Amino acid sequence: xxxxxxxxxxxxxxxxxxxxxxxxxxxxxxxDTPSLKFENDSTVSLPIAYVNIDSVLTHYNxxxxxxxxxxxxTESSRASISQKQKQVANEQQEFNRKLQNNAxxxxxxxxxxxxxxxxxxxxxxxxxxxxxxxxxxxxxxVNNQLADSVRTCIKxxxxxxxxxxxxxxxxxDNILYAKDSYDxxxxxxxxxxxxxxxxxxx
Length: 202
Prior knowledge:
The chain has 202 residues and is mainly alpha-helical.
């Protein structure tokens, strides 16, 4: 009976050793993605990464081009508004000068001129509002295009990278600390610029 017990224990011991060997000699993942592993029983490397959005906006060529175009459009709008403001101010000053010097032939003529200047002022306000709305819509369009291109790029990038989660980070908004190995910003920017360079230009 004791011999049978020894034999069973021996078989179990061999089975455990075989399972142990199979577990630790199994094929390892060959991708560059950090996998769940333990180093010196204290460090855990996870299949996650993050992209620094501030850096993307700084180094992504499309983002820089779109920002420059928006800046030029903003400056053009400001110049147009400024020119219109000067015109209205000059018209108001001229009206006040004529009014003080009794230069109008009649009260009716003065009221007509006053109405004309009021319309110029209203036109200026409408122009400023229209240009502001156009800039806002353009900014929203650019933001949506940027977000879409980044999402598309990351999906393509992750077909081979195989991360489980990719965070976006701006300053210290989402990630207070992470090892440099989790930062894939440069890789994403490189792919974004390659895709942008290959895209047909309007």
